[in-house]
Design brief:
Blueprint (H helix, E strand, L loop, with lengths): L16 E2 L3 H10 L2 E7 L4 H16 L3 E6 L4 H6 L7 E6 L2 E7 L4 H12 L1
Parallel strand pairs: 1-3, 2-3
Antiparallel strand pairs: 2-4, 4-5
């Protein structure tokens, strides 16, 4: 059912990818070199502020930006200890390497991503 399954390791996407299930989440985080996961909620003001930043990073960096709606995927969010949104979790080579809560500036996110893509 995963419509955006990775077709090759290292490949990037130019726009954020919406996670549809826990299996899809596993495919995305293990199928790409660097993945920044945004745990968000539609009702969250700071999440909406972060959205254009993440869209820019998706097109400007080699990382895949994945979005997880915490209301639709409560168990998945809980498994990462998400207590507030937005929470950003960075994966490199399938492993969680960083986690931040709150809105971060584009430069901070870019340098976080670039620390694992170079």
């Amino acid at each position: 059912m995963a419509t955006d399954a990775p077709s090759g390791s290292g490949q990037s996407l130019d726009e954020p990818l919406h996670v549809e299930s826990e299996d899809h989440f596993e495919e995305v985080t293990s199928g790409y070199d660097v993945v920044l996961v945004d745990f968000y909620a539609d009702w969250c003001g700071p999440c909406k502020m972060l959205e254009p930043v993440l869209e820019g990073l998706a097109s400007e960096t080699d990382a895949v930006i994945a979005k997880v709606d915490v209301d639709q995927h409560q168990q998945l969010a809980g498994s990462f200890g998400v207590r507030g949104v937005p929470t950003l979790v960075l994966f490199a080579d399938g492993e969680q390497v960083e986690q931040q809560t709150g809105v971060l500036p584009a430069e901070r996110l870019r340098s976080m991503i670039e620390g694992y893509t170079e």
